[in-house]
């Protein structure tokens, strides 16, 4: 007899065909998926239950092709601590990952031009600091004292067939202010004087600015490349020519400036 008196009936993975072990099933809209296949999906993908087997197979093909993108990726800039933004400025692409071994993790490589927006939000949480009275009860100070905590969150909106957003927190633990000497609420501290707060605020603004500017430049380049080319006079042969992709005269092959 199986768990809770029922015989465990093995299921097969609709993707790879292997048997799915106990507690290893990942339900799809029209089939089942083993945890090994699920682990190959994008970490930013969250719509598994309503996905069909065909849609999952398409994503796995995309993820397989992404391995070549990762191998060709050359990091020119890194921002972050735990979860990092890696930028390839030459290829106009970026990665968001906490992995050290990129080829093993296979993080999604995203084009600058696929960014549709970037949100940077600083969340503040206030908690009251209490003291123990002579009877062992926790009571408020008079006036009440508070500790302030801050978290720094980035959301990158992207045009991708398998996910719309890449969301992550810049700080691994909340930034606390007045944790050693809580102040009355009327004396709320200036959080921007805190070194950790300054660090994460700059980090978030840098990510937002880099991706926003890079997106604008990538789209401008794409629009310029798609625009119809105008005929010019070749300075070498004097012919009226439409420069080729290399910017050369179609008649003499010389460079057209």
Brief digest:
The protein has 257 residues and is of the alpha+beta class.
User: What Rg is obtained from the alpha carbons, in whole angstroms?
Assistant: 27 Å
Largest sheet: 5 strands, antiparallel
Portion in helices = 10-25%
- Let me know the average pLDDT: 87
The class by helix and strand makeup works out as alpha+beta
Number of strands: 15
Strand content: 25-35%
- Count of the separate structural domains: 3
Oligomeric assembly: single chain
Low-confidence stretches: none
> H/E element string?
EEEEHHEEEHEEEEEEHEE
Question: Can you tell me about this structure?
Answer:
The structure is a single chain. This protein is α+β, with helices and mostly antiparallel strands and 257 residues long. The chain folds into 3 domains: 9-66, no CATH class; 115-216, no CATH class; 227-257, no CATH class. The protein has helices at residues 35-38, 53-72, 102-105, 195-226, and strands at 11-12, 19-20, 25-27, 32-34, 77-80, 84-88, 93-97, 110-111, 115-132, 138-158, 165-169, 175-177, 183-184, 232-233, 240-241. Strand 6 (84-88) and strand 7 form a beta hairpin. The chain is flat and about 100 Å long.
Question: What is the topology?
Answer:
Layout: E1 11-12, E2 19-20, E3 25-27, E4 32-34, H1 35-38, H2 53-72, E5 77-80, E6 84-88, E7 93-97, H3 102-105, E8 110-111, E9 115-132, E10 138-158, E11 165-169, E12 175-177, E13 183-184, H4 195-226, E14 232-233, E15 240-241
Antiparallel strand pairs: 1-2, 3-4, 5-6, 6-7, 7-8, 9-10, 10-11, 10-12, 10-13, 14-15
């Amino acid at each position: 007899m199986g768990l809770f008196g029922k015989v465990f009936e093995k299921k097969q993975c609709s993707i790879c065909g292997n048997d799915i072990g106990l507690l290893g099933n990942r339900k799809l809209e029209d089939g089942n998926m083993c945890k090994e296949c699920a682990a190959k999906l994008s970490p930013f993908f969250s719509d598994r239950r309503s996905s069909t087997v065909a849609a999952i197979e398409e994503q796995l093909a995309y993820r397989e092709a992404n391995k070549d993108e990762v191998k060709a990726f050359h990091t020119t800039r890194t921002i972050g601590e735990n979860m990092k933004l890696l930028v390839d400025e030459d290829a106009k692409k970026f990665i968001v990952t906490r992995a050290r071994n990129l080829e093993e993790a296979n993080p999604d490589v995203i084009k600058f031009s696929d960014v549709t927006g970037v949100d940077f939000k600083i969340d503040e949480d206030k908690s009251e600091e209490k003291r123990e009275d002579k009877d062992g009860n926790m009571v408020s100070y008079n006036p009440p004292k508070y500790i302030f905590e801050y978290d720094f969150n980035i959301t990158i909106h992207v045009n991708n067939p398998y996910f719309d957003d890449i969301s992550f927190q810049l700080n691994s633990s909340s930034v606390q202010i007045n944790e050693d000497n809580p102040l009355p609420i009327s004396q709320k501290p200036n959080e921007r004087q805190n070194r950790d707060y300054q660090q994460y605020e700059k980090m978030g603004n840098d990510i937002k600015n880099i991706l926003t500017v890079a997106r604008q430049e990538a789209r401008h380049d794409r629009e310029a490349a798609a625009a119809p080319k105008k005929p010019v006079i070749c300075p070498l042969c004097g012919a009226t020519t439409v420069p080729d992709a290399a910017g050369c005269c179609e008649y003499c092959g010389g460079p057209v400036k």
